[in-house]
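Give me the fold.
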Amino acid sequence: MNDSSTPACDWPQFDRQLAATDTPLPLFRQQLTAANDGLQRRFLAGEPVDRLVSARAELVDQLLVRAWRRLVSTDADDIALVAVGGYGRHELHPGSDIDLLILLAEDDTA
């Protein structure tokens, strides 16, 4: 049986693949599918569900951080990505939606 310390992804390798492509969406899909398959195997092996729910949220955290960094300047201080709902509580069950809130600074010129 795996435990929660087993990474769902080889993140350094994933980062290298992302850096080498102009079309990252297939890489994100592939990683999400592979990691979900791994979480399913861990479930079938008897790993406690609370660990798997947290591991799924951590997986999505890591994928979103990488997507956000590709799309938003690291210097941007007028925009924020916030996880809400079950995902915001770090509880992401299989098939759950991922609730996100994108906050923008108020435009002082309007």
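The helical segments are 11-19, 25-44, 49-71, 85-88.
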